[in-house]
Amino acid sequence: MDNKYKTEAIAEIIVNTLFFVLTVIFRAFTIAYLFNNFVAVAFDIPKIGLVVALGINLVAGLVTSESSSESNKSFRDQTITSFVSTTVALLFGWLLLLFV
Q: Is the CB of residue 29 less than 8 Å from the CB of residue 53?
């Protein structure tokens, strides 16, 4: 019986880690997409790639992160919230580009 719980715990860790990594990559894609279509066009500056967007995401996360003691959400809930807010930002950016 103990082995079943260990397997479920390991599976949950793997799923949470994969979802977190995909969310970070998705956030970087969203940053690159929005930057390249709004900031780079407005200020006539070079576009950025996914790696630079990942760096911006990392720096922004370090600057704006709250300590773990301040957050009551679980790791999974924080990741889901991040994914949903990124999706909303990408959707609004895409909709805005339709009218520009």
A: yes
Cβ-based neighbours of 87, under 8 Å, separated by 6 or more: 26
- Reported as a single tens digit per residue, the pLDDT across 63-84 is 987 665 556 888 889 899 999 9
Q: Distance between CA 98 and CA 54 in Å, rounded? A: 26
Residue numbers of the domain that contains 76: 2-98
Residue whose C-alpha is closest to residue 28's, from 64, 73, 59, 68: 59
According to DSSP, residue 35 is labeled I
- Close Cβ partners of 6 (under 8 Å, ≥ 6 residues apart): none
Q: How many domains does the chain have?
A: 1
The pTM (predicted TM-score) of the whole model is 0.85
